[in-house]
Amino acid sequence: MRAWMFTAGTLLFAAGVLTGGRWQTPVRAQAFSVVMECGTSSASQVRTTLYFGLARPKGSVSELEWQIFLRDEVTKRFPDGLTVWEAEGQWRTPAGSIDHEQSKVLLLVHADTAAARQAVLSVIEAYRKAFDQQSVLWESARVCVAA
Known about the structure:
- With 147 residues, this protein is an alpha+beta fold.
- It has helices at residues 2-23, 63-75, 114-130; strands at 42-53, 55-56, 59-60, 83-92, 98-110, 137-146.
- The strands form 2 sheets. It has a 4-stranded antiparallel β-sheet with strand order 4-5-1-6, with helices on one face.
- The radius of gyration is 27 Å and the shape is globular.
């Protein structure tokens, strides 16, 4: 009786696997696109947010150093305006520990052009070199700006 139940169970399982494989719809990647419809009273722009850690191998970036960097590197590339605020970041180090660091967050709104992207890259590289940083976090998104 046990042998019969085992055989019947195995056959039912196999039939389920075979049938399920045939009824299942194949998974395909779907295209994803966002169309920005800003309307007639606004224009499509890019919002770029940069996260600058203030710790460095020997001390930290002072407020005066930050203000000079902002004036000399950021404002000259993005003279139309920007927003800065203070934050505290955290991340997992390659060794697995959690580190915390005071940071500055810089928000820019600019045209979606190669020149603007290059200006962002130049700001990042200037900060990395000036303050011995491994990286600067960069995120961008399309936004609508009122005219």
